[in-house]
Each structure stands twice: as C-alpha cells, then as structure tokens.
Specification:
By secondary structure, the chain is α+β, with helices and mostly antiparallel strands. It is 34% helix and 22% strand. The protein contains 11 helices and 11 strands.
Length: 297
C-alpha cells in the first residue's frame, strides 16, 4: 500500500522539515529508477554530513521498511522486491524521462537533477527558436500588470514589420514555438503572436480587454483519437499502445485557442488523411469539433 510522505517532525522549522522531505523524495527517486542508493549519493547531492545522510535513510526505512534492503557485499541499499514509491511524482515515467531530456538538451544542469546514472540518450534535433530576453521580460511584465504594449511585429503576410498595440494575457506553446496570447488593438480581436517575431517592444500602449474577455482561451474542447480504421488489427493495437488509448480511444482536452495547433501537430488539420500507416490516428469526433475549426484556423 502506498504511504503518504511524513509530516514535519515536531520541533523542526519548516525549512528543515522541507529539506528532509526533499531528501526523502531523492531516496525514493533513486531507489525507484536506479534500484540502489548509498549515503554518498545524499552527501554529494545535498552537501550534508554523513551522519545526516544516515538519519535520512533511517527515517525513510522507518516510513517504508519494505522499500530498501542493505546489501552488505556491495555496501549499498537496494530496492526491495516489494518496493512501492512513497512519493507519486517519483513513480511517474514522465518525471524521469523529462528530467533526462532536460539535462540532455541543457535546460537543466545535471547536478540539479535527481537523476544519477544516465543511459545513453539521443534527441532528434530541431531548429532553435531564438528569443530576445528583453522582449520576453517585457511581455511577462505586461501580462503580470494587465498592461498594453506596442510591438514591432513581423507577420507572414507582410514584407515589412508593423507596429501593433496589444494587451497580452498568457503564453502558449504549440509544440514547436512560443506564442503570446493577446488582444490585438488594431483588429479588435484576440490573436496569437509568435514571440520570436516580436522585434521591438515599447510599454507605451493603453491596456485593452484581458483574459476574461477571451472566449476561445477560456473554452475547453475535447478531442477523441482512434486508430485509423483502415489499419490492420495488429497495427491498430500498436497505435493504441503508442497513444496510451483505453478501449481504443485517447481523449485530449485543450483550449479552443490552441485547437488548430493540436490538430496540426497530430496531422489532423485536414479531413482527408494520408495513407493509414502515415496518418495512424483519426479524429473520431471531427463533426462535433467542426464548429470550432474555422475560428481555430
């Protein structure tokens, strides 16, 4: 049975108890994914003394005695055969794989990750998206303050960039690029602006409507994905596993404002799909979503 993390120990400050909680999570994580742990792992990662590391391991063993066994020959603690994670986050494959990916691409320093041993890893490269730190900071400030700004924006429809007044209220990622969701003063409508295309920013614009007026941002829609019906049974089963489908379906919920990006990302932005092997999945509830598609596109 999964146990809950220990509450703060009596007589300890909140900072101290949080520190031990983090170390207990570290023990849990290493046992879950590396199947072993020693005191040196704790002392090197947290900069604590060996006696403190022993106390932390003893506390963890008190909370979950079946989770670790001391291997006297190897002089390490190994995960017990009845190991059950104490912390839900440590048992999530996405947590481990995301940390592994973050360290590989340089987003997270290896010494800041709970991952110790790392398997050989390769990441498919993609073109970099260079963002101007000053512009991003200015957009974040405008979002935080509910303020309007003027931006010099390079659109796809014009050769030369134009100044526009916008009131940004959120950030969005379409899987490839970062956007700022904002009310466009010139068009009197909420739009997505690719942040990399913002060339200059001036905090001289009066504010316009905010997130509460953005209906497409506040509305959620559900996508129901199923394997392409023309695939052979074995291939449909493989697709069900790839997409984590249950009863032959995968359900995704997204903001209406992001629907177009989700469909494009999945190759579902058109009704006429490619060959079954290329398309892999189809949108089961396409008709129900058709009312949203024109606005999304």
């Amino acid at each position: 049975m999964r146990q809950s993390p220990v509450p703060p120990l009596s007589g300890q400050s909140s900072a101290t108890s949080w520190g031990q909680g983090r170390r207990l999570e570290f023990i849990d994580f290493r046992l879950r994914w590396e199947q072993r742990l020693n005191r040196a792992d704790l002392t090197s990662f947290f900069g604590i003394s060996t006696p403190q590391a022993s106390i932390d391991i003893a506390k963890y063993a008190e909370m979950a005695p079946a989770n670790l066994v001391y291997d006297r020959s190897a002089k390490v603690y190994v995960a017990g055969s009845a190991f059950a994670p104490l912390f839900p986050s440590t048992s999530s494959p996405s947590r481990f794989l995301n940390e592994l990916l973050a360290t590989e691409v340089g987003v997270l320093a290896p010494e800041s990750s709970l991952v110790g041993w790392r398997p050989s890893l390769a990441v498919a490269p993609s073109p970099g998206r260079a963002l101007d730190a000053t512009i991003l900071a200015g957009l974040l400030s405008a979002i935080r303050e509910g303020a309007g700004v003027r931006v010099l924006y390079q659109s796809m429809s014009r050769t030369e960039p134009l100044w526009r007044g916008i009131t940004p209220h959120a950030l969005a990622n379409d899987g490839f690029r970062w956007h700022v969701r904002a009310y466009c003063h010139e068009r009197a409508a909420f739009r997505d602006f690719v942040i990399a295309r913002v060339l200059e920013l001036e905090p001289t614009e009066a504010s316009g409507p905010g997130a509460e007026a953005d209906a497409d941002w506040g509305t959620e829609v559900e996508l129901v994905l199923v394997p392409h019906p023309k695939l052979a049974k074995a291939k449909r089963r493989a697709i069900e596993l790839d997409y984590g489908m249950r009863d032959g379906e995968a359900r995704l919920t997204c903001r209406k404002a992001l629907l177009f990006y989700v469909l494009r990302h999945l190759g579902l932005d058109r009704a006429d799909t490619d060959s079954p092997e290329a398309a892999q999945v189809v949108l089961k509830n396409r008709k129900a979503l058709e009312q949203h598609l024109p606005a999304a596109a």
